[in-house]
Structures are given as structure tokens and as C-alpha cells.
Design a protein that fits this description.
alpha+beta; 12-stranded mixed β-sheet; 12 strands; 35% strand
């Protein structure tokens, strides 16, 4: 059967989700360039006698932003299990240049190196993704089908292969590799510490950042455990400037159990094969 598991009956929906994936990809990649353990405020305070527009001050703030993101990456990479839920809104550029907000949620459970469960629901599609260490499975319950691929590699490599060869993009899983040596790297062009405040009752640093592809804001918890609680991005290269907003709720490691990585294939689901597609730039993110 010539069907694409990720987009059968909803090809435009899956393409819309790519912006969400790329948004986090860009943000995830930024945090790997910092090496010095310099506090945010200390890096900024050293330059208070200079104009904020000066190159020296901006360089110090960018380094402080890298340090904050690097600390967050270390927290994420140190966890053997990651469990988080995401509430998101993605602007989809429709006809006549109008942005149409698409709402969604994602439940993500991960155990290194090769177990993943994602339950994705948006206004336009629903998908479940499983990696059990042996197979990568996609289930579309409403459409009544599922597809599987052999997958004995670590989850990161499995997701890259699924994206490059079959166009199977799983949004919002970039956090799984944040802080590891495998995450892609990008450069920050500017950075600003907006404020130190609270979000969901937790002290956070609110950063406004700009890279070559996106502008974004990120709220990172303070203290020993540095985690992202909120992320917003804007694609400033497009005239419509579509935005992506994600609120992230973190759970303890005991929210992850081995049973959730095994797909439940009921008798009413029909198996279909995956079609290979040409690699796209997005697939390498």
C-alpha cells in the first residue's frame, strides 16, 4: 500500500508540526558553546559601567546566556529518564498570508538510550510514537492504521533515520539530546536577560535570544536543576513572523516505566508500509 504513515490523510498537518520541531531544534542547539561556569548576573555586572549597546557588554551577556543554556543542558543530559508534558500553539501560515494558530499537546517519556513514547494531539492530527529498542512504531488510531520499522539503534539515531528516509518527524523531542555531544550547534547573535521572575511558582531566568534562524524567549529554572519551563520562537525570516509557544511541565523519573514503550496494537488497526522520501534540510535537525 502506498501510504506515508506520518501523513496519510493529514499530510499538511504533519508538515505544520515541523516548525515546532525546528523551533526546539534551534533552541536546543544553542546551549553547547559555553564552557566557563560564570553566573549570569556576575557576567553582566562586570560591564555595568559600559553602555549596554557596547560590543563588550553584549559579548558578556551572550556568554552568560550560553552558560545558562549549558547548565540546563547538563541537567537534562545527566538524567537517565526524562518525563515531560507540553502544551503548545503553532502559527501556521495559511492562504493570503494569515497566521492560523494550531493548538496541541504532547506527552513525552524517554529512557536512555533507546526507549521513547510520545503521545501527540493537535487540532489537526493525533499520533503515537514508540521506540522499544527493537522497533519504531507509529500509530494513527483515528485513521485505523500503524506502521513499524526495525530500530535497534539509540533513539536519537532512530529518529534521524526515520526523518531522513521516511519523512517521519516527531516534534518536541529535541530536549532528549540537549546537552549531549550529539546536539547540533548554532551561534547566538544577541542575548538579553529580560528578568529573574517566577513561572508556575518556580524561580526562573527569562532570556530573550536571537540566532541566525529564529528569535526566541526561554524561561529556565534557577538552582541546581536547570530546566526549561517555557519556550517561544518567532521565524523572523518570514513576513508573517509565525510564532511557536510551548509550556513544559516536568515530572519525576518514576513517571517513566518500561510498559509504556511497548505499542498496544489492537485488532482494528491495519498495518501499512512506510514509503521512503527524499531527505530534506529539516530532517537533519
Amino acid at each position: 500500500m502506498k501510504h506515508h504513515v506520518a501523513n496519510r490523510g493529514a499530510s499538511s498537518s504533519m508538515r505544520r508540526s515541523r516548525f515546532a520541531a525546528l523551533a526546539l531544534s534551534a533552541a536546543v542547539a544553542m546551549g553547547l558553546g559555553a564552557t566557563a561556569a560564570v553566573s549570569v548576573q556576575a557576567a553582566i555586572d562586570r560591564n555595568t559601567q559600559q553602555s549596554e549597546a557596547s560590543p563588550q557588554t553584549q559579548k558578556a551577556v551572550i556568554q552568560a546566556a550560553y552558560n545558562a543554556l549549558d547548565a540546563m543542558g547538563k541537567t537534562l543530559a545527566s538524567q537517565n529518564k526524562l518525563a515531560y508534558d507540553v502544551t503548545m500553539v503553532t502559527d501556521v501560515v495559511a492562504e493570503k498570508g494569515k497566521n492560523v494558530p494550531v493548538k496541541g499537546t504532547a506527552q513525552v517519556r524517554f529512557e536512555r538510550p533507546n526507549h521513547l513514547y510520545v503521545d501527540l494531539k493537535t487540532d489537526t492530527m493525533e499520533r503515537q510514537f514508540f521506540h522499544d529498542g527493537n522497533q519504531f512504531t507509529v500509530i494513527a488510531k483515528k485513521e485505523g492504521y500503524y506502521g513499524q520499522l526495525p530500530a535497534t539503534d539509540p533513539t536519537r539515531k532512530t529518529l534521524i533515520t526515520a526523518a531522513q528516509k521516511y519523512g517521519l518527524e516527531v516534534p518536541l523531542v529535541d530536549l532528549l539530546e540537549w546537552g549531549t555531544s550529539k546536539a547540533p550547534k548554532v551561534e547566538l547573535e544577541s542575548a538579553r536577560l529580560v528578568e529573574e521572575t517566577t513561572l508556575d511558582g518556580q524561580p526562573v531566568e527569562h532570556w530573550a535570544l536571537r540566532g541566525k534562524e529564529l528569535e526566541w524567549e526561554i524561561w529556565i529554572t534557577k538552582g541546581e536543576q536547570r530546566l526549561p519551563l517555557k519556550l517561544t520562537t518567532t521565524n523572523y525570516h518570514l513576513p508573517e513572523k509565525p510564532k511557536f509557544v510551548a509550556n513544559i511541565q516536568w515530572h519525576k523519573a518514576d513517571a517513566v516505566n518500561s510498559a509504556m514503550f511497548a505499542p498496544r496494537l489492537s485488532s482494528d488497526l491495519k498495518p501499512i508500509s512506510f514509503n521512503k522520501v527524499q531527505p530534506t534540510p529539516e530532517a537533519t535537525q
